[in-house]
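Hey, I'm writing a tutorial for new members on how sequence and structure tokens pair up, and I'd like a real worked example in the thread rather than a made-up one. If someone can provide the structure for the chain below, I'll link this post from the tutorial.
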Amino acid sequence: MATIQDVAKKAGLSRTTVSRVINEHPYVTEEKKRLVTQAMQELNYVPNSSARRLRRQQTETIAVYVPRITNPFFSHLVEVMEKEAAKKGYQLILCQTRYKKEQERNFLELLKTKQVDGLILTSIENDWSEFEPYLSFGPIVVCNEYSDSAQVPSVYLNQIEGSYLGTKHLIDQGYTKIGYCTGNHKSSRVSKDRKIGFLQALDDAGIMMKEEWFFYNAYSVQDGFAAFKKLSELDDKPQAVFTGSDEVAAGIAKAAFDAGWRVPDDLAIIGFDNQPLAALMDLTTVEQPIDTIAKQAMNLMVEAIQAKKPLSRKEVILPFQLIQRSST
């Protein structure tokens, strides 16, 4: 196996010059770069990338927090991030938190121990004060989720506006008895704001909401099945339901169909995100521009890594779009 000394001998240059070329050091002539590259090719010499990263004090790796990788929204988000990162010479580590605070805190050690150059948070379960001390070890970018306390770059959508848009659509379609199905409504800022927007739309229209029409801790298709079961057993049933994800909306729609209900005649359903599943099942949904969210977040992260200076608050707020289909 060829060594760096062999490359130096073949190129007729010093070992130090070869090392400078490999590590992309400035002030090396193009001719010397050519000689080293040619020698490396002829000897099939491959530089030790781990050693190079160690010398540069960079891992060229970015950690991305996701709560559930099986959720199509997050898997799509990560796929776009990975492609964008690869263009810039970075790779990703996926950290699945499962909405657990302790798991979220444990992954912060990756930044502290220099195993990654930065963290992108797509969900936040802990108070921002848990993350703050780790900013001294590397940049953190918030994506999808958001916090008023986070003095870091953030890419998100105003979830109050998103849920208001979807709920107003149901009201405009003539529905006055509207259920609400969501995930973590206690710690997630996204869920809290969506509930605010939902209730604001009802209040603006003078519509009352019953406590029994709230369905919490729904994340998956299976949770949608469970939500429909509860809904169908109520004496006073809602005519429509706003959901926090297309997965849940699909589960409710399938359960309704299996029970002989007609959508939207017996129950109108609106999802969130505009995942491929929504188009497949012809669900009305509130679209989030996932590709744009992912690309913007990755660009902000790479900028922060390369700038090597303290982060400041920078907000990129993107728009929603209502996609109307047959379920409403």
